[in-house]
Amino acid sequence: MIPLLGIGTTLLGVAVGQLLLGAAMLLGSAAGAPGTGARPRCLRCLGPPLRRAPPGWDVLTMNSGVYAEHSGIDASQGWDEFRRQFLTDSEIVFARDGLTASIVVAQQVKVDNMYLAVNGKIDASSQC
């Protein structure tokens, strides 16, 4: 499903499917125990997560290569500073999820650099 729907939508679909399967199992076990009131309790627990809007899938964050060392970004300043410095300067030109990799081509406007990232690792750049 990943090549057809993308990673974000596929993961969300799997999560919703697991919640529904868990709910069905809870309801099945609650039906076998009359008078326990387990069925209404489990429905109240499952309602809020299912009503919430799914979180956005930030393609740049997921392909930012946070596992790698980034020159010019001080790790001691935390995640918010990383996002501010790295992600605010990048504009997605192309993004696609395949069977074995996520590909992103992005433009860094401030430094006039275009780069190709495969699974978050930058493999090509327009700067030397």
Would you write up a description of this structure?
It is elongated, with a radius of gyration of 21 Å. It is of the alpha+beta class and 128 residues long. The chain has 5 helices and 4 strands; from the N terminus they run αααααββββ. It has helices at 2-5, 7-31, 38-51, 59-62, 79-87; strands at 90-97, 102-108, 113-118, 121-125. It folds into 2 domains: 2-51; 59-125, Spermidine Synthase, Chain: A, domain 2 (Roll), CATH 2.30.140. It is 44% helix and 20% strand. 5% of the residues are buried. Strand 2 (102-108) and strand 3 (113-118) form a beta hairpin.
CATH topology of the largest domain: Spermidine Synthase, Chain: A, domain 2
User: How many domains comprise the coordinates?
Assistant: 2
Order of helices and strands: HHHHHEEEE
Which second-level CATH architecture of the largest domain applies?
A: Roll
Question: CATH first level of the largest domain: which class?
Answer: Mainly Beta
Rounded mean pLDDT is: 76
Structural shape: elongated
Supply the key terms:
4 strands, 128 residues, Spermidine Synthase, Chain: A, domain 2, four-stranded antiparallel beta sheet, single chain, elongated, alpha+beta, 5 helices, 2 domains
What is this structure's SSE topology?
Layout: H1 2-5, H2 7-31, H3 38-51, H4 59-62, H5 79-87, E1 90-97, E2 102-108, E3 113-118, E4 121-125
Antiparallel strand pairs: 1-2, 2-3, 3-4
Helix pairs in contact: 2-3
Briefly characterize the structure.
With 128 residues, the chain is α+β, with helices and mostly antiparallel strands.
